[in-house]
Specification:
- It is built from 4 helices and 8 strands; from the N terminus they run ααββββββββαα.
- The protein has 163 residues and is of the alpha+beta class.
- Strands 1-8-3-6 form a 4-stranded antiparallel sheet. Strands 2-7-4-5 form a 4-stranded antiparallel sheet, with no helix packed on it.
Length: 163
C-alpha cells in the first residue's frame, strides 16, 4: 500500500469493515482510522511480546497475517480486518500473549490516549457502539475458546478410554 494514501485507502483494501468499528458512520470510521499509526512488519517479526508490559495500544491488521502465541502454544491466526488488543482502553493489565508476523504485514497502531481523546470529541453514542463491538468480539473469543476446550477434553477422554 502507498504510505501517504494508507489512511484514505484502508477501507477499500479491507474486505469488510472491521468488527470493532462495525456500525460506525462512514465519516467517523475514516476519522478513527486516521488516528492510527502505520507500522510495517516482516515475516517472523515480533509485534507484541508476552513480557508483562502494560497494554497501552491496540492494532488493526490492515494487510497480512499474524499468529498469537502463549507459552509456545499457537492460540490463533488473525487476518486483515482483525484487531489485536481491543480491550486496551479498559484494562491497564499486561499483554496476555505474544503476536508475530506470519508474513509481511501492515498494521495501524492505536494508542490509548489518542483513542480516548478521539471519543471525547465525539457523541457518546459512538463510544457506546465501540463498547458493544468490543463485547461482541470478546463473546466470539469466549465461544471459540470454549470450542477448543471441548475438543481437547474430548480427545483426552477418548485417549483414556480402554480400547
Amino acid at each position: 500500500m502507498n504510505e501517504p494514501n494508507l489512511h484514505t485507502n484502508i477501507l477499500s483494501s479491507l474486505e469488510t469493515v472491521p468488527l470493532l468499528l462495525k456500525n460506525f458512520p462512514s465519516d467517523d470510521l475514516r476519522h478513527f482510522l486516521a488516528i492510527g499509526h502505520v507500522e510495517h512488519y516482516q515475516k517472523q517479526d515480533v509485534i507484541i511480546m508476552d513480557d508483562n508490559s502494560p497494554s497501552t495500544s491496540a492494532y488493526l491488521l490492515v494487510e497480512g497475517r499474524v499468529s498469537v502465541w502463549k507459552d509456545d502454544i499457537h492460540l490463533a491466526s488473525l487476518n486483515a480486518g482483525d484487531f489485536i488488543g481491543e480491550t486496551f482502553l479498559f484494562t491497564k493489565g499486561s499483554r496476555s500473549a505474544a503476536v508475530t508476523a506470519e508474513e509481511t504485514c501492515t498494521l495501524l497502531r492505536f494508542d490509548r490516549q489518542d483513542t480516548l481523546d478521539y471519543f471525547r470529541r465525539k457523541p457518546e453514542r459512538l463510544f457506546k457502539i465501540f463498547i458493544m463491538n468490543i463485547v461482541e468480539i470478546q463473546q466470539k473469543k469466549i465461544v471459540n475458546m470454549n470450542q477448543k476446550l471441548i475438543t481437547i477434553q474430548r480427545r483426552l477422554l477418548h485417549k483414556d478410554t480402554p480400547a
